[in-house]
Amino acid sequence: MLGDSLSAEYGIARGSGWVALLEEKLAAEKITAQVVNASVSGDTTAGGRARLPALLKKHAPAVLIIELGGNDALRGLPLATTEANLSAMAQAAQQAGAKVLLAGMEVPPNYGADYSRRFQAVFAQVAKARQTALVPFLLKGVADAPNATALFQPDRIHPTAAAHPTILGNVWPELRKLLK
Fold it and tell me: Mean pLDDT across the stretch 124-147?
């Protein structure tokens, strides 16, 4: 798992985030797998790309989930850079023998319709070009829920622990296909 604060349990109790819940799900499904959460709060696609070679060498994953890009948008980084970094990470993982699941993100509406559409499209473009699995929107059912405010910490960026089962529910169907 290569991600940012959404996967690193920012602001919630350790063990209550969706990656920890994934470990429980795997055990319940009797799927033998070791989960390595290499997520870092605040990480960008550039940071993930820089860290990935050493992680691939150390852990040799069969599956890599890439959940990065949100901080790129928050920092106003060029979309072409985000796309290039995501593509390079997917390619590096595939060359190391890992299947890749890309977790897509969306930005709040205040970024404007055009930027929002183009940002969201980056994930689908990379998934198609690199032939990876894709979760189109990691926070579906959280950020767009009728009670979305209650599912976020006061910063309105990071989900509460109560939202993490929904996040896992978004990831699990695509991840399960890769684990077969």
Answer: 97
**Which one of 16, 41, 59, 158 is the catalytic residue?**
158
Q: How far is residue 31 from each of residues 99, 100, 126, measured CA to CA in Å?
A: 16, 18, 28
Q: What domain range is 77 assigned to?
A: 2-179
Instruction: Residue 89: give its domain's CATH number.
Output: 3.40.50.1110
For 41, the 3-state DSSP assignment is coil
Query: What's the whole-model pTM score?
Result: 0.97
Annotated catalytic, 59? Answer: no
Counting the structural domains of the chain, the total is: 1
Q: Is 144 a catalytic residue?
A: no
Active site residue 5: yes
Catalytic residue among 5, 7, 39, 87: 5
* Residue in 7, 41, 155, 164 annotated catalytic: 155
